[in-house]
Amino acid sequence: MFRFIVRRLLVTIPTILVVISITWVLIKLAPGNFYSGEKPLPPAIEKIIREKYGLDKPWYQQYGKTMWGIIRHLDFGTSLRYQGQSVNTIIKRSLPVSAAVGLLAYLLALIVGVTVGSIAALKQNSKWDYGSMALAMLGISVPNFVLGPILILVFSLGLYWLPPSRWGGFPSRNLVLPVLTLSALYMAYIARLTRAGMLEVLRSDYIRTARAKGLSERDVVIRHALRGGLMPVVSYTGPALAFLLTGTVVVERIFALPGLGNYFIQASLNRDEPLIIGIVAFIAITLLLMNLLVDIAYAYLDPRVRYQ
Amino acid sequence: MSSRKFRQIVGLVLLASLAFSTYSCTVVSSNEEFFGTPTPPTRDIFRYVTGDEPASLDPAISNGQPEARIYMAMYEGLVEYNAKTLEPEPALAERWHINNDSSEFTFHLRTTGRWSNGDPIDANDFVYSFRRAVDKKTASQNAYLASYLKNAEAYNQQRVFVRDPKTGQFLIERDFQENPPPESIGNSPIDPAKSEYPADPKESTPDPDTAFHHQMHAPVRLTLPGSEKARTKQIEGDPKLKAAVAGKEFVPVKAEDLGVEAVDKYTVRVYLKQPGVFFLRLLAHQVFRLVPRKVVEQWGAQWTQPEHIVTCGPFKMKEWVPYDRLVLERDPMYWDAKTVKLDELHFYPIIDNATAMNLYKVGELDAVYNHAVPTPWLHIMKQKKDYMDQAEAANDYLIMNTTKPPLDNVKVRKAFNLSIDKEAYASWRKIVRPLTAFMPEGTFADYPRPQGAAFNPAEARRLLGEAGYPVEQNSDGTFSCPKFPVDQVEFIYNSQAANKSVTEWMQAQWKQNLGITVGLRNMEWKTFLDARSKLEYKGFARGAYGADYMDPFTFLSVFYTADESGTGWFDPKYVAMLDEANRTLDHKKRYELLAKAEAYMLDNQPIIPIDTPSVNWLKKPYVKGMYPNPASLFAWKYVYIERDRAKWDYGTPSLTAE
Amino acid sequence: MATEKKPEPDELIHIGPEMAVAEADLMPGEVGRFVQGTSLWRDAWRRLLKNKLAVFGLVVVVIVTISSIIGPTVIQRVFGFTPDYIPSNDPRLTQSFPPFTGPNGEFSWAHPMGTDNAGRDQFARVLQGGQISLFVGILATLVSLLIGVSYGAIAGYVGGRVDNVMMRIVDVLYSLPYVIVVIVLLSMFRSQTPRGQLILLFVAIGTVSWLTMARIVRGQVLSLKNQEFVLAARATGVSNTRIIFRHIVPNTLGPVIVYATLEIPQIMLTEAFLSFLGFGVQAPLASWGSLAADGIQNIAVFPWQLIFPGVTMALTLFSLNFLGDGLRDALDPQMRTV
């Protein structure tokens, strides 16, 4: 187990550095720069700015400086666009927003999805089954940037029940629509996954044995079937988080939430190099770490996976 | 029926019903009389979007309108804008006296003024704040507004006086001027026999006299550039100056030379370098508001942070989360706290208009800022009872390069002006009103604005013919003007989205009415600005101006100097007319003289007036005391939430002063 | 000694947030059947037709595709609007009308989906959006197919160290937030022309979507390469390249087609949300994503600007999913999918 973790870490760290480097290269290769806004500057001022931000140094010096700052103390520098705010401050400020929305969405998706999927599996071919799978199909087909505005249209602009955008702190009514929008897709998918997994398990021998032994249905389901049926859901967590990230970006745009995704898009549009690199690195680290955690959990739960 | 088919049908039905219910929901609601829900908030708070995140909470620094509204809540000055008319009202100054030619102002402060931390406000605060605003180190974007104060420009630009070391006398500016205007009372030595101020029965005791007062009552001193290189260059270039400067020393202009004085604890005197009849209207601007000396000196650039900041306006800071919200609460220390009705003011920095409008509709905002209503929505918004329809204190026009032919001929310029139908333009743009003069419509109620020239394409063609470019009519009814040197003119514009269609519209008008197709050229912003200001364009460009302060002179001053307008038109006669008007004490007479100057300028046609924009915003009917004045500046202490439906505002509240 | 890591039989390969196929079921357990001849395809076709849902999906997709391709032309002939026609000479018309409404509120056939803020016909725009979305979807899938199949086939066939390295690379790339990199790519290298931006878009999407395809194909090839027909080919001296591309790859077609049909809606979704964020299709071209982005601005007053592109897209994806389900069932009824 330990060797497994160490081996994975050894792969993860260079991966992150590679990701950062690729991003850095892409930014440097691109035409334009962060200060060429609406009112481009006179050459004298442009020179001062370039000096101030070290943009006039040769590329290997800039690369070295950036990477060294990151490796030594995870210092990603100061944002070029948001005056005086360090990238770490911005990430610290925006991370709770994204985390709150993302985690709540996934939690909701898990709870609802597993419940609905299990019931659908248990009551196979009944109207519960049809109805919930139809809804699931809908949830999968409607893109989140269509679902979100429709929810806003109905529940906010139409009925005035909920705010249409903005971050209201945690917890607040502002969270309801973004979380719903984000979780819809995963809810649907987890329901389908659970249903398939449960169906598979419920047909298996050991469940028949448990039933034959006279265990109550509730016991059969919760203590035996669920564990097996949930395996696909657990293994899905890793990729789910990656997909959740891209979903968060869209949701934050629609609902004007000051989260990592929104800052990332803004930084890309503004060519705010330090901020882009900081967020990309942060996301890469998070994803890789989460994947590692999930793999560890999976290895723990299923001995078959603890391979060579 | 197979199970899957069942699934399919159920799915489709769900999809269809969702779409349909959404749609019908909103169709129903579009017939409401207000845009969105008119339910007032439970607390007495006002939630507003003023614009983008404020660049700074220091009132001296930023000149944006969004920041101005925030400053008006947090800081106060000698006078404040009237909520409807924007005329100056007593604020920290209880009353004031103006001398006989408006070159000196004495303000008596109220003794009840307090900072938010309880410290009393006195005259020294004003002296400090004014000096700081003009100080080059503060880098205020508004320092030019203080230029009327004696020695303000010189101090701001760090210039030097020229003094004779033997006699201690300074060189005087008027000695080196070509046609110096008549000397103002403020620049003349004090005559003990004559009273400088008009008689005032309310004033029993005269103001104390001071040495500074005498010092100020002297002609304006000559100043030279502070940098030795520039100074030497100027001296070498002028023999008279060179002779006069020989043997003299250069004394840097200091803060203490600025024409502001704390006569006593509650009396502030302001000395102008020339008569300024509208100077009071300038004083409500944020650059003249107070900043807390002790806090600024202690914390420097960090003084506006929530843990340090001290304010003097009707509201003080409660919470500031950058890029999220600025929450102000009422200041019990404020001298007029009893008038303040709101408990809290919330400012949200939102740049996206659609987001702001959505929040407004749902009732998360109580008003949105000017120009927040997207143009495509107007035909619906205009019918709502919470839409504010009012002209703005700004104008849009076309500038012409009058230094290059063929536009150096005034007849040609007039022809181009007469061939644009401003009314048609206004109905096409929807959020503007037609403008044929230069002063925006409705901004200065009693200003006798000249009519300007109405749309007259026939007259335009005639004038063009007189100028040597006759217009012929073709067989199909269209016009052509073969002799016109069309390659010598072009219409430059900047790449932003709306500009292209506007430019094309103008081009179409000229083609239709004069038969001339003016070429269009798209330019990058910086190139565009440069070309305009350096007169490096041939033909036409778009221009616009917004009022810096609420006096007609702010607009007319565009042509006061040779290089501000971008047209190359400069006429000393026009300048003289303006100067004469500004020396006139009688308000009505002054306006008449200003209007005459405007008419003169319009007759010379350096620009083609196009439109006055509308303020274009929304406020909930329960918000009272907030009026859609042309400058969109609100005296927050008068704003309140009205919970009695019968007293709500239906439609745009009137701006006529009661 | 290097071991070739076979994917676990039960491991689900997640192709998109909503689709997965079990690796086991993509293994050519019945590879023999695929080799046997074309009658298999006819079998599959018949099975497909029996599945009502899949037929429905197929019909809708065909309708949407055809109307996207010929629709704008037809509209132009009949009504005179192109997707970017702005009636700028009549100010009464340059505003957003509800569906089936004319300038004075009366009923009119001219705009069944209403108009946008500049007076452009929404129906024509939605159809053009379909053109772009489907175009990008199919082309990007093809790109990813090409790269993925080649990569996976080579890795699987050559085996050993090379395979290990190649798959390691895939694993590493797989765990990256590729959408992030795509966004950075697209935002940095904005093309000047809308055409150029399109090409950039599907190259960007295509080059990051090949990973799963590569894995699947590799798994297939691993099993196939020890079959007799391969040994026979090698014995008769056929070169390795020919073996890979002329013998093995055609036998992976079944799962590849299945995967591709799952991939298309996934890619369409990616393109849509990239356009939605502003990194994809640029004006004056419209894709469903950019139409939705424009529409969201005005939902408070003109909800139809969002609803029609959104519903059309949802419907198309819905149908593509059903079609994909059906294809999977048709090609191998015993395949277990979610």
List the defining traits of the structure above.
A: 308 residues; mainly alpha; 12 helices; 75% helix; flat; B: 658 residues; alpha+beta
Radius of gyration of chain A: 24 Å
Give a quick account of the main beta sheet of chain A: strands, pairing sense, barrel closure. Answer: none
Tell me which oligomeric state these chains represent: heterotrimer
- Rg estimate of chain C, integer Å: 23 Å
Order of strands in the sheet with the most strands of chain C? Answer: 1-2
Structural class of chain A: mainly alpha
Mean pLDDT of chain C: 75
User: Distance between the terminal alpha carbons of chain A, to the nearest Å?
Assistant: 10 Å
Secondary structure: number of strands of chain C: 2
Characterize the largest beta sheet of chain C: strand count, sense, and whether it forms a barrel: 2 strands, antiparallel
Could you walk me through the main structural features you see in this protein, from its secondary elements to its overall organization?
The complex is a heterotrimer of chains A (308), B (658) and C (338). Chain A has 308 residues and is mainly alpha-helical. Chain A has helices at 2-29, 43-52, 59-73, 87-122, 127-141, 144-158, 176-202, 205-212, 217-229, 231-255, 260-270, 273-301. In chain A, helix 10 packs antiparallel against helix 12 (273-301). The longest helix of chain A has 36 residues, at 87-122. The model of chain B has no long low-confidence stretch (mean pLDDT 88). In chain B, a hairpin with a 6-residue loop joins strand 2 (79-81) and strand 3. Chain B has a 6-stranded mixed beta sheet. In chain B, strands 1-13-12-11 form a 4-stranded mixed beta sheet, covered by helices on one side. Residues 1-9, 23-38 and 334-338 of chain C have low confidence and may be disordered.
Write a concise synopsis of the structure shown:
The complex is a heterotrimer of chains A (308), B (658) and C (338). By secondary structure, chain B is of the alpha+beta class.
SSE layout:
The complex is a heterotrimer of chains A (308), B (658) and C (338).
Chain A: H1 2-29, H2 43-52, H3 59-73, H4 87-122, H5 127-141, H6 144-158, H7 176-202, H8 205-212, H9 217-229, H10 231-255, H11 260-270, H12 273-301
Chain B: H1 3-29, E1 45-51, H2 65-74, E2 79-81, E3 88-90, E4 93-98, E5 104-109, H3 123-134, H4 152-156, E6 160-163, H5 211-216, E7 223-224, H6 228-237, H7 239-245, E8 249-252, E9 260-264, E10 267-271, H8 279-282, H9 293-299, E11 315-321, E12 325-330, E13 344-349, H10 353-362, H11 378-381, E14 387-388, E15 394-400, H12 410-418, H13 422-429, E16 432-434, H14 457-466, E17 472-473, E18 479-480, E19 490-494, H15 497-514, E20 519-523, H16 525-533, E21 539-546, H17 553-556, H18 572-583, H19 587-604, E22 607-613, E23 617-618, E24 623-624, E25 640-641
Parallel strand pairs in B: 1-13, 19-20, 19-21
Antiparallel strand pairs in B: 2-3, 4-5, 5-10, 6-7, 6-8, 9-10, 11-12, 12-13, 14-23, 15-21, 15-22, 16-22, 17-18, 24-25
Helix pairs in contact in B: 12-14, 18-19
Chain C: E1 12-16, E2 19-22, H1 23-26, H2 31-36, H3 39-50, H4 52-78, H5 122-158, H6 160-174, H7 178-188, H8 194-224, H9 228-235, H10 240-251, H11 253-277, H12 288-297, H13 304-331
Antiparallel strand pairs in C: 1-2
Helix pairs in contact in C: 3-13, 4-5, 4-13, 5-6, 5-8, 5-10, 5-11, 5-12, 5-13, 6-8, 7-8, 8-11, 9-10, 11-12, 11-13, 12-13
